[in-house]
Amino acid sequence: MKSRTRILLTVLATVVGTLSLILYTTLSQDIIFKGLSFCTSTSSELAIGGMAIFGSAVVSGFIASLIVVRDNYWPHLLISLFILVKMSLLMHCDHWSGPMWFESGLHLSLLGGVWLGSYGANKFPLAPI
C-alpha cells in the first residue's frame, strides 16, 4: 500500500472512529438514558448505561480497524489521546457529573472498548487483510 493511501486511510479511520464514538456515546448516555449521571440515575440505569457506553467504544474501535485494514494502530492511538484529553479537561474544569472515580471509570472503559474493538476487528474472519 502506498504511503499516501495509508495516511488517507489513517485520517479517515480516525475521523470516522471519533465521530462514531461521539455519536454512540451521546446516543446511549443522553438520549436512551436521558442524561446518565451518578447522582440522578438508578443503579440499574448506571449498569446498563455503562455497558452501552463500553459497547459504543467497542463499535468505534471495530469500525476504525476495518477502515485501516487491520495493520495500523494510529487511529486507535489518536482516539485514545482524544479520550484522555477530554477526561483531563473535564477534571481540570471541574465538570464532573458524579464522583471522580465514576467518571474516570467511564472514560477508562471507553479506552478499553476502543482497543477491544481493534482486537475484535483483527480477529474478525471476514475483515480485509
Automatic annotation (TrEMBL):
Keywords: Membrane, Transmembrane, Transmembrane helix. It comes from the Bacteria. The chain crosses the membrane at residues 7-27, 47-69, 76-92. This is Uncharacterized protein. It comes from Flagellimonas nanhaiensis.
